[in-house]
Specification:
The complex is a heterodimer. Chain A is built from no helices and eleven strands. Chain A is an all-beta fold. In chain A, strands 2, 4, 5, 6, 9, 10 and 11 form a seven-stranded mixed sheet that branches. In chain A, strands 1-3-8-7 form a four-stranded antiparallel sheet, with no helix packed on it. In chain A, strand 4 and strand 5 form a beta hairpin. Chain A is globular and about 40 Å long. The chains are: A mainly beta, B mainly beta.
Chain lengths: 116, 114
């Protein structure tokens, strides 16, 4: 049973480009969470999605950032017109249906975004 | 509001020595407290969790943590370090068990000397 898969592992973008980060949850999981870890800081919650629905986006920056979790395929975190301050590790986690307890979270190994 | 502070971004101990990773929290309500571990090139894994039951919580791989309300601390310990314990450790706090409300510390990298 594969774990949470994130790709790419490393992503390099120039300022102004778009970044797309992908997360495939564990098989059978229908909840996806995105977290961001800035240098020297802890992981910070960004957004919580279920299939085709954004449940909680209280941690998402108001501009340039968006997330989706379509009926088919991986969850996508999209950052438009990236700036150097977007450089961070982005982690995805998933949990089973009806279980939003953080004890049931399974994390991916993250995508390291570097903006030149 | 909740917050968590991990003292020491890098801790190095000898194999067989005591491991002590420090974590202090701030919470306006009785907290849920967690320790997560991240091994190289892997995702975070839950090591242990405190939810107001026993103050001494035992986790996987011989780790344990003690909740001390008077000191607002939740330090992680292991009596004897093993080379395989080398990893990044994150302390976290939450007002409830919801995954979207958990707040992580900045992490402590544990190195083990042969």
């Amino acid at each position: 049973n594969a774990g949470v898969m994130q790709n790419p592992r490393h992503l390099v973008r120039r300022r102004g480009q778009e970044a797309r980060l992908r997360c495939s949850p564990m098989k059978g999981h229908s909840h996806v969470y995105w977290y961001r870890q800035l240098p020297e800081e802890g992981l910070k919650f960004m957004v919580y999605l279920q299939k085709e629905n954004i449940i909680d986006e209280s941690g998402m920056p108001k501009e340039r950032f968006s997330a989706e979790f379509p009926k088919e395929g991986p969850s996508i975190l999209r950052i438009q017109q990236v700036v150097r301050g977007d450089s961070a590790a982005y982690f995805c986690a998933s949990s089973p249906p009806y279980q939003t307890d953080n004890e049931k979270l399974f994390f991916g190994s993250g995508t390291q975004l570097s903006v030149l | 509001a909740q917050s968590v502070t991990q003292l020491g971004s890098h801790v190095s101990v000898s194999e067989g020595a005591l491991v002590l990773l420090r974590c202090n929290y701030s919470s306006s309500v009785p907290p849920y407290l967690f320790w997560y571990v991240q091994y190289p090139n892997q995702g975070l894994q839950l090591l242990l969790k405190y939810t107001s039951a026993a103050t001494l919580v035992k986790g996987i791989n011989g780790f344990e943590a003690e909740f001390k309300k008077s000191e607002t601390s939740f330090h992680l310990t292991k009596p004897s370090a093993h080379m395989s314990d080398a990893a990044e450790y994150f302390c976290a706090v939450s007002a409830d068990s919801s995954a979207s409300k958990i707040i992580f510390g900045s992490g402590t990298r544990l190195s083990i000397r042969p």
